[in-house]
Amino acid sequence: MNPQSTSPGGDEASTLGKARVDPSTSSSFDTNGAAANPTGTAIHGVGSNRKYWRADYLKPTSDAWRDQVHGYRPRNAALRSIQDEFFDDYVQLVSAYGNLPIGIATTVCRNVLLTYELSPLVDRKDMAQVWNTKNVRAAAAAIRGSQTTREEFTTQMLRVAYNRQAAIVDRPVRSSKPTEKKPPYTSGELASFLAVAQTQPCQRTRWELDAFISLGAGAGACARDLRFLRTDEITIRRDGTVDALFRGKKDLRLIPVAEPWATRLRELVASRPETMSPWAIIGTRNANLILRLLDRVEWTGTQRPLLSRLRTTWIFERLLGGCRMDTLQDLLGESTFKAVGHAATFLPAGDSDRDRFRAEVQR
Protein backbone atom coordinates (compact mmCIF):
# COMPACT_ATOMS: atom_id res chain seq x y z
CA MET A 1 0.00 0.00 0.00
CA ASN A 2 1.33 3.42 -0.95
CA PRO A 3 1.35 5.63 2.18
CA GLN A 4 0.90 8.75 0.09
CA SER A 5 -2.46 7.53 -1.14
CA THR A 6 -3.78 6.64 2.28
CA SER A 7 -6.63 8.51 3.92
CA PRO A 8 -8.03 7.61 7.34
CA GLY A 9 -11.57 8.27 6.24
CA GLY A 10 -11.79 5.18 4.04
CA ASP A 11 -14.88 3.17 3.24
CA GLU A 12 -14.07 0.04 5.25
CA ALA A 13 -17.00 -1.51 7.06
CA SER A 14 -17.29 -4.20 9.65
CA THR A 15 -17.99 -7.66 8.29
CA LEU A 16 -20.55 -8.09 11.05
CA GLY A 17 -23.14 -6.03 9.20
CA LYS A 18 -25.65 -3.55 10.62
CA ALA A 19 -28.51 -4.06 13.01
CA ARG A 20 -32.07 -3.72 11.88
CA VAL A 21 -34.21 -1.70 14.25
CA ASP A 22 -37.64 -3.08 15.06
CA PRO A 23 -39.96 -0.27 16.25
CA SER A 24 -42.20 -2.79 17.99
CA THR A 25 -39.47 -3.94 20.39
CA SER A 26 -37.79 -0.69 21.36
CA SER A 27 -38.90 2.48 23.05
CA SER A 28 -36.18 4.60 21.42
CA PHE A 29 -38.24 5.85 18.46
CA ASP A 30 -39.65 9.14 17.34
CA THR A 31 -43.25 9.69 16.35
CA ASN A 32 -42.61 8.42 12.81
CA GLY A 33 -41.27 5.09 14.00
CA ALA A 34 -37.66 5.91 13.13
CA ALA A 35 -34.82 5.07 15.48
CA ALA A 36 -34.25 8.04 17.77
CA ASN A 37 -30.49 8.41 17.63
CA PRO A 38 -28.43 11.39 16.52
CA THR A 39 -26.57 9.59 13.73
CA GLY A 40 -29.54 7.84 12.16
CA THR A 41 -27.57 4.60 11.67
CA ALA A 42 -27.54 1.30 13.51
CA ILE A 43 -24.62 -0.07 15.39
CA HIS A 44 -22.24 -2.63 13.94
CA GLY A 45 -21.83 -6.01 15.61
CA VAL A 46 -25.31 -7.38 16.20
CA GLY A 47 -25.74 -11.14 16.30
CA SER A 48 -29.01 -12.94 15.67
CA ASN A 49 -29.80 -13.07 19.39
CA ARG A 50 -28.51 -9.61 20.39
CA LYS A 51 -29.83 -6.11 19.99
CA TYR A 52 -27.50 -3.16 20.50
CA TRP A 53 -29.16 0.15 19.72
CA ARG A 54 -26.81 2.87 18.70
CA ALA A 55 -25.59 5.02 21.59
CA ASP A 56 -23.15 7.92 21.82
CA TYR A 57 -20.17 5.66 22.49
CA LEU A 58 -19.08 2.11 23.25
CA LYS A 59 -17.40 1.29 26.55
CA PRO A 60 -14.21 -0.78 26.30
CA THR A 61 -14.70 -4.51 27.01
CA SER A 62 -18.49 -4.27 26.59
CA ASP A 63 -20.05 -6.79 24.22
CA ALA A 64 -20.88 -4.09 21.66
CA TRP A 65 -17.32 -2.69 21.83
CA ARG A 66 -15.85 -6.18 21.47
CA ASP A 67 -18.05 -6.97 18.48
CA GLN A 68 -17.08 -3.72 16.81
CA VAL A 69 -13.31 -3.91 17.44
CA HIS A 70 -12.82 -7.65 17.00
CA GLY A 71 -15.19 -7.78 14.04
CA TYR A 72 -13.58 -4.93 12.10
CA ARG A 73 -11.64 -6.10 9.03
CA PRO A 74 -10.12 -3.52 6.66
CA ARG A 75 -10.47 -4.07 2.95
CA ASN A 76 -6.85 -3.15 2.32
CA ALA A 77 -4.65 -6.26 2.29
CA ALA A 78 -1.68 -4.49 3.95
CA LEU A 79 -3.80 -3.34 6.88
CA ARG A 80 -5.35 -6.80 7.24
CA SER A 81 -1.86 -8.29 7.39
CA ILE A 82 -0.87 -5.83 10.14
CA GLN A 83 -4.06 -6.60 12.06
CA ASP A 84 -3.36 -10.33 11.91
CA GLU A 85 0.26 -9.89 13.03
CA PHE A 86 -0.42 -7.45 15.86
CA PHE A 87 -4.02 -8.34 16.75
CA ASP A 88 -3.55 -8.30 20.54
CA ASP A 89 -1.73 -4.97 20.34
CA TYR A 90 -4.44 -3.60 18.06
CA VAL A 91 -7.20 -4.48 20.55
CA GLN A 92 -5.19 -3.03 23.45
CA LEU A 93 -4.55 0.23 21.59
CA VAL A 94 -8.17 0.74 20.56
CA SER A 95 -9.07 0.11 24.21
CA ALA A 96 -6.55 2.81 25.20
CA TYR A 97 -8.65 5.33 23.25
CA GLY A 98 -11.26 4.99 26.00
CA ASN A 99 -14.98 5.32 25.37
CA LEU A 100 -15.26 4.85 21.61
CA PRO A 101 -17.69 7.23 19.83
CA ILE A 102 -19.77 5.10 17.49
CA GLY A 103 -19.65 7.70 14.73
CA ILE A 104 -15.86 7.25 14.42
CA ALA A 105 -15.46 3.69 15.74
CA THR A 106 -14.42 2.23 12.37
CA THR A 107 -12.09 5.17 11.70
CA VAL A 108 -10.29 4.77 15.04
CA CYS A 109 -9.82 1.03 14.42
CA ARG A 110 -8.43 1.74 10.96
CA ASN A 111 -6.17 4.57 12.10
CA VAL A 112 -4.55 2.36 14.74
CA LEU A 113 -3.53 -0.07 11.99
CA LEU A 114 -2.62 2.80 9.69
CA THR A 115 -0.17 4.13 12.27
CA TYR A 116 1.76 0.88 11.99
CA GLU A 117 1.74 1.01 8.18
CA LEU A 118 3.00 4.59 8.15
CA SER A 119 5.90 3.76 10.48
CA PRO A 120 8.39 2.04 8.12
CA LEU A 121 11.46 3.47 9.86
CA VAL A 122 10.77 2.01 13.32
CA ASP A 123 10.56 -1.52 14.66
CA ARG A 124 6.85 -2.33 14.52
CA LYS A 125 7.27 -4.91 17.27
CA ASP A 126 8.41 -2.18 19.64
CA MET A 127 5.20 -0.42 20.72
CA ALA A 128 7.18 2.28 22.51
CA GLN A 129 8.74 3.34 19.18
CA VAL A 130 5.54 3.08 17.13
CA TRP A 131 3.48 4.99 19.67
CA ASN A 132 6.05 7.64 20.43
CA THR A 133 4.23 10.96 19.93
CA LYS A 134 6.92 12.09 17.49
CA ASN A 135 6.33 9.02 15.33
CA VAL A 136 2.54 9.50 15.49
CA ARG A 137 2.92 13.04 14.17
CA ALA A 138 5.26 11.81 11.42
CA ALA A 139 2.65 9.21 10.40
CA ALA A 140 -0.02 11.91 10.28
CA ALA A 141 2.17 14.05 8.01
CA ALA A 142 2.49 11.10 5.58
CA ILE A 143 -1.26 10.92 5.04
CA ARG A 144 -2.45 12.24 1.74
CA GLY A 145 -5.59 14.24 2.21
CA SER A 146 -6.97 17.45 3.61
CA GLN A 147 -5.57 19.27 6.60
CA THR A 148 -8.72 18.36 8.52
CA THR A 149 -8.12 14.68 7.81
CA ARG A 150 -4.59 14.88 9.15
CA GLU A 151 -5.69 16.82 12.22
CA GLU A 152 -8.38 14.26 13.04
CA PHE A 153 -5.87 11.42 12.66
CA THR A 154 -3.37 13.26 14.87
CA THR A 155 -5.95 13.98 17.58
CA GLN A 156 -7.21 10.41 17.72
CA MET A 157 -3.82 8.68 17.67
CA LEU A 158 -2.18 11.09 20.12
CA ARG A 159 -5.01 10.30 22.53
CA VAL A 160 -4.18 6.59 22.14
CA ALA A 161 -0.45 7.30 22.63
CA TYR A 162 -0.90 9.45 25.72
CA ASN A 163 -3.40 7.05 27.33
CA ARG A 164 -1.11 4.12 26.62
CA GLN A 165 1.83 5.90 28.23
CA ALA A 166 -0.26 6.82 31.28
CA ALA A 167 -1.34 3.20 31.70
CA ILE A 168 2.21 1.82 31.82
CA VAL A 169 3.72 4.36 34.21
CA ASP A 170 5.35 2.45 37.05
CA ARG A 171 3.15 2.57 40.11
CA PRO A 172 4.65 2.53 43.60
CA VAL A 173 4.92 -0.93 45.03
CA ARG A 174 2.64 -1.25 48.02
CA SER A 175 4.16 -2.74 51.14
CA SER A 176 2.91 -6.15 52.16
CA LYS A 177 3.26 -5.20 55.81
CA PRO A 178 0.00 -4.74 57.72
CA THR A 179 -1.09 -1.13 58.05
CA GLU A 180 -0.13 0.35 61.39
CA LYS A 181 -3.15 1.35 63.41
CA LYS A 182 -3.17 5.03 64.26
CA PRO A 183 -3.81 5.64 67.97
CA PRO A 184 -5.94 8.46 69.41
CA TYR A 185 -4.22 11.82 69.81
CA THR A 186 -2.81 12.72 73.19
CA SER A 187 -3.81 15.94 74.92
CA GLY A 188 -0.35 17.33 74.14
CA GLU A 189 -0.75 16.67 70.42
CA LEU A 190 -4.17 18.30 70.38
CA ALA A 191 -2.79 21.33 72.23
CA SER A 192 -0.03 21.70 69.61
CA PHE A 193 -2.62 21.72 66.80
CA LEU A 194 -4.60 24.45 68.56
CA ALA A 195 -1.42 26.47 69.09
CA VAL A 196 -0.76 26.34 65.34
CA ALA A 197 -4.31 27.54 64.68
CA GLN A 198 -3.81 30.58 66.91
CA THR A 199 -0.64 31.62 65.05
CA GLN A 200 -2.24 31.78 61.60
CA PRO A 201 -2.13 35.30 60.11
CA CYS A 202 -5.36 34.79 58.17
CA GLN A 203 -8.48 35.12 60.31
CA ARG A 204 -10.48 32.78 58.08
CA THR A 205 -7.82 30.02 58.25
CA ARG A 206 -7.45 30.52 62.00
CA TRP A 207 -11.19 30.12 62.59
CA GLU A 208 -11.67 27.16 60.25
CA LEU A 209 -8.68 25.18 61.56
CA ASP A 210 -9.86 25.65 65.14
CA ALA A 211 -13.37 24.49 64.15
CA PHE A 212 -11.91 21.54 62.24
CA ILE A 213 -10.01 20.32 65.30
CA SER A 214 -12.88 21.00 67.72
CA LEU A 215 -15.52 19.20 65.64
CA GLY A 216 -13.24 16.26 64.88
CA ALA A 217 -12.03 15.65 68.44
CA GLY A 218 -15.18 16.93 70.11
CA ALA A 219 -17.95 15.44 67.97
CA GLY A 220 -16.33 12.71 65.81
CA ALA A 221 -17.00 14.54 62.54
CA CYS A 222 -16.01 12.86 59.27
CA ALA A 223 -14.98 14.68 56.09
CA ARG A 224 -18.49 14.67 54.62
CA ASP A 225 -19.92 16.02 57.88
CA LEU A 226 -17.61 19.05 57.70
CA ARG A 227 -18.14 19.47 53.98
CA PHE A 228 -21.84 20.20 54.42
CA LEU A 229 -21.84 21.83 57.87
CA ARG A 230 -23.11 25.41 58.21
CA THR A 231 -22.41 27.59 61.22
CA ASP A 232 -26.13 27.87 62.06
CA GLU A 233 -26.13 24.07 62.50
CA ILE A 234 -23.85 24.44 65.53
CA THR A 235 -26.45 24.99 68.25
CA ILE A 236 -25.65 26.58 71.61
CA ARG A 237 -28.31 25.74 74.14
CA ARG A 238 -29.39 27.77 77.19
CA ASP A 239 -27.51 25.50 79.57
CA GLY A 240 -24.30 26.10 77.59
CA THR A 241 -24.16 22.69 75.93
CA VAL A 242 -23.40 22.57 72.22
CA ASP A 243 -24.84 20.29 69.51
CA ALA A 244 -23.67 19.86 65.91
CA LEU A 245 -26.07 18.75 63.18
CA PHE A 246 -24.22 16.49 60.73
CA ARG A 247 -25.61 15.46 57.36
CA GLY A 248 -22.62 13.61 55.94
CA LYS A 249 -24.16 10.16 56.32
CA LYS A 250 -27.46 8.73 55.12
CA ASP A 251 -29.45 10.19 58.01
CA LEU A 252 -29.13 13.48 59.88
CA ARG A 253 -27.26 13.13 63.18
CA LEU A 254 -27.45 15.55 66.10
CA ILE A 255 -24.18 15.10 68.02
CA PRO A 256 -23.56 16.56 71.49
CA VAL A 257 -20.11 18.17 71.50
CA ALA A 258 -17.84 17.06 74.33
CA GLU A 259 -15.89 19.40 76.57
CA PRO A 260 -13.51 21.22 76.35
CA TRP A 261 -14.41 21.42 72.67
CA ALA A 262 -17.93 22.71 73.34
CA THR A 263 -16.44 25.73 75.10
CA ARG A 264 -14.12 26.39 72.18
CA LEU A 265 -17.02 26.19 69.71
CA ARG A 266 -19.08 28.65 71.78
CA GLU A 267 -16.18 31.10 71.58
CA LEU A 268 -15.67 30.48 67.86
CA VAL A 269 -19.33 31.02 66.99
CA ALA A 270 -19.41 34.22 69.06
CA SER A 271 -16.27 35.58 67.39
CA ARG A 272 -17.16 34.71 63.79
CA PRO A 273 -17.49 37.89 61.69
CA GLU A 274 -20.92 38.39 60.16
CA THR A 275 -19.33 38.98 56.76
CA MET A 276 -17.93 35.42 56.62
CA SER A 277 -19.72 32.71 54.65
CA PRO A 278 -22.33 30.65 56.52
CA TRP A 279 -20.35 27.51 55.70
CA ALA A 280 -18.22 26.26 58.60
CA ILE A 281 -15.38 25.70 56.11
CA ILE A 282 -15.41 27.92 53.06
CA GLY A 283 -14.69 26.50 49.64
CA THR A 284 -16.04 24.28 46.87
CA ARG A 285 -18.15 21.45 48.30
CA ASN A 286 -16.06 18.52 47.13
CA ALA A 287 -13.74 15.86 48.57
CA ASN A 288 -10.74 18.23 48.54
CA LEU A 289 -12.30 20.79 50.88
CA ILE A 290 -10.40 19.66 54.00
CA LEU A 291 -7.16 19.18 52.06
CA ARG A 292 -7.33 22.75 50.75
CA LEU A 293 -7.87 24.04 54.29
CA LEU A 294 -4.81 22.19 55.61
CA ASP A 295 -2.77 23.39 52.61
CA ARG A 296 -3.47 27.02 53.63
CA VAL A 297 -2.05 26.49 57.12
CA GLU A 298 1.52 27.46 58.01
CA TRP A 299 2.53 24.41 60.03
CA THR A 300 6.09 25.48 60.98
CA GLY A 301 7.27 21.93 61.61
CA THR A 302 4.12 20.64 63.31
CA GLN A 303 2.67 17.51 61.73
CA ARG A 304 -0.76 17.93 60.17
CA PRO A 305 -3.70 16.50 62.12
CA LEU A 306 -5.58 13.61 60.51
CA LEU A 307 -9.35 13.85 60.69
CA SER A 308 -9.58 10.07 61.04
CA ARG A 309 -7.40 10.20 64.18
CA LEU A 310 -9.41 13.12 65.59
CA ARG A 311 -12.48 10.96 65.10
CA THR A 312 -10.77 7.97 66.74
CA THR A 313 -9.88 10.24 69.67
CA TRP A 314 -13.54 11.17 70.16
CA ILE A 315 -14.67 7.52 69.99
CA PHE A 316 -11.91 6.41 72.36
CA GLU A 317 -12.81 9.02 74.97
CA ARG A 318 -16.51 8.13 74.74
CA LEU A 319 -15.67 4.46 75.31
CA LEU A 320 -13.56 5.39 78.32
CA GLY A 321 -16.51 7.38 79.63
CA GLY A 322 -18.77 4.32 79.46
CA CYS A 323 -20.72 5.03 76.26
CA ARG A 324 -22.14 1.87 74.70
CA MET A 325 -20.60 0.67 71.44
CA ASP A 326 -23.97 0.38 69.67
CA THR A 327 -24.83 3.95 70.75
CA LEU A 328 -21.54 5.21 69.30
CA GLN A 329 -22.21 3.33 66.09
CA ASP A 330 -25.54 5.17 65.73
CA LEU A 331 -23.96 8.54 66.52
CA LEU A 332 -21.29 7.93 63.87
CA GLY A 333 -23.89 6.92 61.28
CA GLU A 334 -21.96 3.71 60.59
CA SER A 335 -23.47 0.38 59.58
CA THR A 336 -20.56 -1.63 61.04
CA PHE A 337 -18.41 -1.58 64.17
CA LYS A 338 -15.22 -0.92 62.18
CA ALA A 339 -14.57 2.63 63.45
CA VAL A 340 -15.65 1.82 67.01
CA GLY A 341 -13.67 -1.41 67.02
CA HIS A 342 -10.53 0.40 65.84
CA ALA A 343 -10.73 2.78 68.80
CA ALA A 344 -11.60 -0.05 71.19
CA THR A 345 -8.28 -1.77 70.46
CA PHE A 346 -6.53 1.07 72.31
CA LEU A 347 -8.54 0.65 75.51
CA PRO A 348 -6.61 -0.60 78.54
CA ALA A 349 -6.26 -4.36 78.92
CA GLY A 350 -9.17 -5.84 80.82
CA ASP A 351 -11.60 -3.13 79.69
CA SER A 352 -15.07 -4.62 79.20
CA ASP A 353 -15.67 -2.81 75.90
CA ARG A 354 -12.34 -4.03 74.52
CA ASP A 355 -13.06 -7.61 75.59
CA ARG A 356 -16.59 -7.44 74.20
CA PHE A 357 -15.32 -6.13 70.87
CA ARG A 358 -12.77 -8.95 70.59
CA ALA A 359 -15.50 -11.48 71.38
CA GLU A 360 -17.72 -9.98 68.66
CA VAL A 361 -15.07 -10.15 65.91
CA GLN A 362 -14.02 -13.69 66.91
CA ARG A 363 -17.58 -15.00 66.90
Structure description:
With 363 residues, this protein is mainly alpha-helical. The chain folds into two domains: 3-167, no CATH class; 187-362, Orthogonal Bundle (hpI Integrase, Chain A). It has helices at 63-71, 77-85, 87-96, 105-117, 127-130, 133-141, 147-167, 187-198, 203-219, 223-227, 261-271, 289-296, 307-320, 325-332, 338-344, 352-362, and strands at 57-58, 100-101, 234-236, 242-246, 253-256. The strands form two sheets. It has a three-stranded antiparallel beta sheet with strand order 3-4-5, covered by helices on one side. A hairpin with a 6-residue loop joins strand 4 and strand 5 (253-256). The longest helix has 21 residues, at 147-167. The radius of gyration is 31 Å and the shape is elongated. The N and C termini lie far apart (71 Å). The model is unreliable at 1-5 and 9-55 (pLDDT under 50).
In the CATH classification, which architecture of the largest domain applies?
A: Orthogonal Bundle
Assigned CATH class of the largest domain: Mainly Alpha
Characterize the overall form.
elongated
Indicate the percent of residues in helices: 40-55%
Strand content: under 5%
Tell me about the largest β-sheet: 3 strands, antiparallel
Topology order in helix (H) and strand (E) letters: EHHHEHHHHHHHEEEHHHHHH
The averaged pLDDT comes out at 79
| Widest sheet, order of strands | 3-4-5
SS-derived structural category = mainly alpha
Counted beta strands: 5
CATH level-4 homologous superfamily of the largest domain: Intergrase catalytic core
Q: Specify the number of helices.
A: 16
Radius of gyration: 31 Å
The parts where pLDDT drops under 50 for at least 5 residues are: 1-5, 9-55
